[in-house]
Amino acid sequence: MGRKLDPSRKEKRGPGRKARKQRGAEVELARFLPPEPEAGRKKLSSHGRKRAAKRRLRASGGPPGKRRPGVEGREPGGGLGPSCGFSFFLRSKNGDGNSKWLAPAKAKKTLSKGNNTELSSDGEVEEVSWEMEEDGSSDEMVDDYGASSSEEEEALLPIEKAALKQKSDRGHLSEDDFEDDEEEEEVTEDAEEEAGRQKKGKEEESPDLQLNLDVEEQFKLPTNEQIEKEDILFPPDLHVIHQRIKGNMEVLQDFGVKREEGHTRQEYLALLRRDMAAYYSYSDFLLTKLMDIFPLPELINFLEANEVPRPVTIRTNTLKTRRRDLAQAALINRGVNLDPLGKWSKTGLVIYDSSVPIGATPEYLAGHYMLQGASSLLPVMALAPQENERILDMCCAPGGKTSYIAQLMKNTGMIVANDSNAERLRSVVGNLHRLGVTNAVVSNCDGRQFPKVLGGFDRVLLDAPCSGTGVISKDPAVKTNKDEKDILRCAHLQKELILSAIDSVNAASETGGYIVYCTCSVMVEENEWVVDYALKKRNVRLVATGLDFGKEGFTRFKDRRFHPSLRSTRRFYPHTHNMDGFFIAKFKKFSNAVPQVQKDEEPAVEAAAPSTVLDTVGEPQLKKKKVEGSKIDKEQKPLQPALKKRRSLQAQRRPSKA
């Protein structure tokens, strides 16, 4: 439809406004164009040429190109040159009486190149006429300033002649190009001048700006009014709070130099605690506890790590498969991107991303692997179970550690998986069946009373219930719903459980006699204080956990002093090991006897216990029960002879009735 456009036969258009003319056109148009001025002179724009033409018309009084009679006859001594028509016009019009005030001023010694003034023979400055003379007798070209090219070429210096020659070699440009070049030169000159002014202004203002920056960088504590205004704002400006936290941290790290006079360190710490509580959404109680545990730079890293979820990890079930077969033959072929967990684990895998749900693959349903956190593998590795041993997992739900123990034991020996919550035991039974564990016995008992049920185990694993301050990334509600009572309640329960776990172990075991205590908390009250309490209450000692990494436990915390052997315990943090916060301690029981605490030592032991309030509350209740029991026994003892007499009398009466 219609004629098709052939791009190869595109018609060429004429040159643009700034395009160079062809050399042939210059030769043909030379007779129509006015004579070009000399290359050394400054070129006039079209507007300037129009103004010059008007001046020539006014000076000549007739059509352009004709000279007024009598102008050439003037002598140089009269102050008028051969090309001073405009000046002569002014003098003739105004008369000789105005010659004094119309005379131009004295010329300076140095005149700019291309200036339109000339010095006369008597030293006066004469204005150059804008008129162009046309003399038929002479063939010389006259420029806009009225001077011939031959005279100027003679007056030029050699260096100026070389410059003119260089310009002429560049080629001939049209008038429009000259105008555009002139305008561009003016624009560039103006731009250079403006840049120079701005540079000078910046140089002048630079000291003041530097001073202002120094003043702004210096951190200042906000006033109470500013804090009240921020409290009114909802939601708060997190960017401002974050910048204030950074500035406050810098001051606290070099407090002696950067601190503001009249303010103490406690004021800076109070502001930092308030800002971090608002920025990270923590309760003031929990943030105060964390500030006591971590140094300030490490505390920021810990809080930031809790905002990011930990990587998904799985544990290979070696009862059914090998790690290499599981990774290469199964998961990678299903579109799972994974890597080995680390050199410290032979069964762990870390999952980066997956095109299929990890908890619903055929391999998972067949029991080839278990979804388990990296930190949950560490207590079992520290326990180091051996084949054909009797092992107790006192708090086993949901069964990840229990199945790992069975895996290391190769389904030999016996494992008692106990938990006080019957509902959670359902997941334990399901996981044990799926993973193919056959040497486990599931029980539902209170761990505190377990020694009365069964004892004599070679090893005991106690993953005690805790406040969960190490798994905030999984449960952000811990940030605000924990207080002092919750920590003390957990610590009291943990002390009871650890004593029960120690009592369940047989110290005379040939291969065992070990207890591993672990929590998913970073609180000292739930970790070091409980371990120190167990060291004083039972005949146990701390041994190395066998883990090559992890930070040492505290031997002193604030005004507390713990046993030096607590250095063998291990702490794991999310910001340093990229796993959930965890605490692990390993005991070795060397005697089944329970040490008797003397009356003089009881106050000291109670002072060393973290939950003194709960202990004092629990001990009187036990004493009351014992006292009541003793009273009942005393009452029953005198009643026993009376009952015997009655029974003997009844026995004697029966045969008499018969």
UniProtKB/TrEMBL annotation:
GO molecular function ontology, one term from the record: RNA binding
Q: Where is the active site?
A: 520 (nucleophile)
Tell me, which GO biological process terms does this entry list?
maturation of LSU-rRNA; rRNA base methylation
The main location is nucleus
InterPro entries attached to this UniProt entry = MeTrfase_RsmB-F_NOP2_cat (IPR049560), MeTrfase_RsmB-F_NOP2_dom (IPR001678), Nop2p (IPR011023), RCMT (IPR023267), RCMT_NOP2 (IPR023273), RsmB/NOL1/NOP2-like_CS (IPR018314), SAM-dependent_MTases_sf (IPR029063)
Per UniProt, where does S-adenosyl-L-methionine bind?
395-401, 419, 446, 463
Q: Which residues form the SAM-dependent MTase RsmB/NOP-type domain?
A: 302-590
- Composition skew (Basic and acidic residues), residue ranges: 162-175, 194-204, 627-637
> Where are the stretches annotated Disordered?
1-213, 602-658
As for subcellular location, the record says: Nucleus, Nucleolus
Protein family according to the UniProt entry: Belongs to the class I-like SAM-binding methyltransferase superfamily. RsmB/NOP family.
Q: What is this protein called?
A: NOP2 methyltransferase
Q: Which organism is it from?
A: Rhinopomastus cyanomelas (Common scimitarbill)
Name the lineage: Eukaryota, Metazoa, Chordata, Craniata, Vertebrata
